[in-house]
Amino acid sequence: MNPPPPPSPAQDDLEAMLARALRKPVPDTEPAGASMPEPAAGPKRCGFVAIVGKPNVGKSTLLNALVGQKISITSRKAQTTRHRITGVRTVGATQFVFVDTPGFQTRHGNALNRSLNKAVLGAVSDVDVIVFVVEAGHFNLADAKVLALLPAGIPVILVANKLDMVHRRGELAPWLRSMQERHPFAEYVPMSAKNAKDIQRFYAIVEKYLPEQDWMYDPDELTDRSERFMAAEMVREKLFRLTGDELPYTSTVVIDRFEEEGKLRRIAATIVVERESHKGMVIGEKGEKLKRIGTEARQELEKLWDGKVFLELWVKVRSGWADDEARVRSFGYE
């Protein structure tokens, strides 16, 4: 592990940083991650960047923007991300290996949440830099619990995300000063993951914390996750998005069959719920809800893989699976 670089002039002068961060942003209509910085000259760099934070602060949205393609699912439901998702982006001479983590769980001490917290702690234990994501202008007990878990000796960059949602920018300055007192952050980055210019600026900030070494992945690779894994995640995203708060977060998706025939994929998957009443929510009247989940997941996967997808979905009840250590592991959790 390389020692953290010395503080930048911007970090020595918090007021200068605040002045830049709080100025009125330039309107940006480009999709985040679509426009890349000019390749940087110099030696190759490569390193791991853990993205951590409480549930629902925009970690997966940030990862997708940084990678330039959707590889981590998103929804308004907390605890959507359940696995360590690795996203790769090569910019100029630097390869960034981003690790998206589940939001740290402080409630519901079941086997599933113990698995999720294990994934968070594992992700931050051996990285080059940690990106701690909070909502700009907000910090509560759940944020504090995540911050307290971060190991000493690894530089931490504070990302004040959802800057576009802050209407009174003047209030952000005292908030940033209070964050400076909470932890010796290496950098302070107010930004919006939806703004392409913010994403470009973020690469340049993170780059200097990565060691000089050869790349770990081919430059065109975007993730280390398999297509089978991505199929299950896309179905789970549509499940959560289309059932809203009615369906408990303990529902999951298991891939029963995954076959490739050229550019065609044939996939059969099972949506696992804990109660018969949940099964009815997923299927919907005359099967319409399940059909819509399947259609939207199939369309997303066809866009991702640029090929035809046949997707079959089934729904099964497995009572108490989230409290069963063996079953949690059998469904692919650590």
Could you characterize what this model shows?
With 334 residues, the protein is an alpha/beta fold. It contains 11 helices and 9 strands. The protein has a 6-stranded mixed β-sheet with strand order 2-3-1-4-5-6, with helices on both faces. Helix 8 (227-243) crosses helix 10. The two termini are 25 Å apart.
List the helices and strands and how they pair.
Layout: H1 9-12, H2 14-22, E1 45-52, H3 59-67, E2 85-91, E3 94-100, H4 111-124, E4 129-135, H5 141-149, E5 156-161, H6 172-182, E6 187-190, H7 196-207, H8 227-243, E7 252-261, E8 264-273, H9 276-283, H10 288-305, E9 309-317, H11 325-330
Parallel strand pairs: 1-3, 1-4, 4-5, 5-6, 8-9
Antiparallel strand pairs: 2-3, 7-8
Essential attributes:
single chain; 334 residues; alpha/beta; six-stranded mixed sheet; three-stranded mixed sheet; 11 helices
Give the fraction of residues assigned to helices: 25-40%
Shape: globular
Please tally the helical runs, counting DSSP H or I stretches of 4 or more residues. Answer: 11
The quaternary structure here is single chain
Question: What number is the mean pLDDT?
Answer: 76
Lateral strand order in the biggest sheet: 2-3-1-4-5-6
> How many DSSP-defined strands?
9
Could you spell the SSE succession in H and E letters?
HHEHEEHEHEHEHHEEHHEH
* Structural class label: alpha/beta
Portion in strands: 15-25%
| CA-atom Rg in angstroms | 21 Å
Given as residue ranges, the uncertain stretches (5+ residues, pLDDT < 50) are: 7-13, 24-40, 75-83, 326-334
The rounded distance between the terminal residues' Cα atoms is 25 Å
Largest sheet: 6 strands, mixed
